[in-house]
Amino acid sequence: MKGLVIKNTGSWVTVRLDDGTTVNCKMRGVFRLKGLRCTNPVAVGDIVQVEDKGGDAPVVGAIEPRKNYIIRRASNLSKEFQIIAANLDQAVLVVTLTNPVTSTTFIDRFLATAEAYQVPAVIAFNKIDLLTTDNLRQQLDELKALYESIGYPVITMSVVTGEGTDSMREQLSGKTSLLSGNSGVGKSSIINLLIPDADVRVGDVSHTHHKGMHTTTFSELLDLPDGGAIIDTPGVKAFGTIDFERAQVAHYFPEIFKVSADCRFNNCTHTHEPGCAVLSVIEEGGIALSRYQSYLSILEEDPNDKYRKPF
Ligand SMILES: Nc1nc2c(ncn2[C@@H]2O[C@H](COP(=O)(O)OP(=O)(O)O)[C@@H](O)[C@H]2O)c(=O)[nH]1
Ligand SMILES: [Mg+2]
Ligand SMILES: [Zn+2]
Fold first, then answer.
1. Which residue's CA is minimally distant from atom 9 of ligand 1?
2. Which of 40, 151, 214, 290 is the most buried (most CB within 10 A)?
3. Consecutive sets of 10 residues in the chain, 311 residues long: mean pLDDT of each?
4. Does the beta carbon of 202 lie inside 6 Å of ligand 1?
5. Does domain 246-303 fall into CATH 3.40.50.300?
C-alpha cells in the first residue's frame, strides 16, 4: 500500500493511504542518507510503501524518490540528521520588521539555503499592522522591492487586520508549503487563520521536546480547505545549514550569480579579485549591500565547521 506521510513524531509516522484512510506506522532503526547518519529518515511529505507484516503495527517500507527535502542536525553538536520535510512545492519564510525583528542576514541565509535545496522560496512580511512609523513603513517598501527585484514573491500581511491574507491564501493554494520563521512572527496564527480547525497553539515559544540527547521534532502536514497543504514544523526556525562549498555560495544568490559571469577569473570569490564584476556592480548600487553582507557571512564560515551552525 502506498501513501503520503502526514505526521511524524519520531518513532511513529501517520500515513494517509490512497483511499483517504490513515494508518499509524512504526519506524525502523537508523538509516543513512548520503553517508550521514540519519535518525529520522522518513519525513512529512514523503510517499512511502506501508508494509503490514502481521506484527503489532504496520511498518514503513520503501520511500519513493523525493523531488527535494530539507534536513537539520538532530541536536546542536550531533552528527545525526533529521529530514524535516520532503517534496515541497515552496518554502514560505514568515518575517517581521518589529516584535520580533527579523534580520536581513537571517532572510538571506534562508533564501540561499532554499536555492541550494532547490525549493522555491516566498517571503511573507507579517504584522504590518505594527509598522506605525515612516521609518518602518519605508523599510518594508524597500525590502519588498529588493526581494521582488531578485525574483522572490513577497507578501505583506497582518493576521490582526486581515490585510494581505488573501494574497497569502492565493500563494499557498494547491501547493505543499513549508512555513518557517523565527519564533513569534505569527506562523501558528497564520495556520489558524487559514485552517480554522487546525487549532495550533499561538504564543508558544516551541513545541520541541527533549528526549535523551536529541531534540525530537514533531512535524505535521495540515490540509488547506481549498487544496494544498502547510507543513508545520514547530520548533524549527529555518532550514539547517547545508554543505556550502565556498565557490558555490554565489550560486545561491541569484543576482550575484548573474553578474559573476563577467568576472575576470572564473574562480572569483567576489571579495578582492581584480576585474570582479560583482564588486563593480555593488559599487554602482546594482546589488544591495545587505545581500552582499549576507553572502560574505556565509563565505566566512569556517569550512571545517559545515553542518555545525543551524540557523
Ligand atoms: N500585531 C500582530 N500580532 C500578531 C500577528 N500575527 C500574530 N501575532 C501575535 O504574535 C504572537 C506570536 O504568534 P504565533 O502565531 O504564536 O507565532 P509563531 O511563534 O511564529 O507561531 C502572538 O501573540 C500572536 O497573537 C499580526 O499580524 N499582528
Ligand atoms: Mg508557533
Ligand atoms: Zn567576482
1. 186
2. 40
3. 90 91 80 59 91 85 90 67 89 97 94 92 98 98 98 98 98 97 94 92 59 55 96 71 76 97 95 97 97 92 50 34
4. yes
5. no
- All three cell numbers of 146, joined, read 529588493
For 35: left if phi > 0, alpha if psi spans -120 to 50, otherwise beta; the answer is left
**Going by CATH, does the domain composed of 86-232 fall within 3.20.20.70?**
no
Cα 180 to the chain's mean position, in Å?
A: 5
3-class DSSP state for residue 237?
A: coil
- Please tell me the distance from the alpha carbon of residue 50 to that of residue 1, in angstroms, as a whole number: 5
Q: Looking at domain 2-84, which CATH architecture does it have?
A: Beta Barrel (2.40)
* The C-alpha cell that represents 136 in the structure block: 518602518
Whether 14 is in the pocket of ligand 1, judged by its Cβ within 6 Å, is: no
Closest ligand to C-alpha of residue 203 is 1
Q: Which amino acid is at 114?
A: A
Every domain of the chain and the residues it spans: 2-84, 86-232, 246-303
228 C-beta closer than 6 A to ligand 1? no
Instruction: Identify the nearest ligand to the CA of 208 by its number.
Output: 2
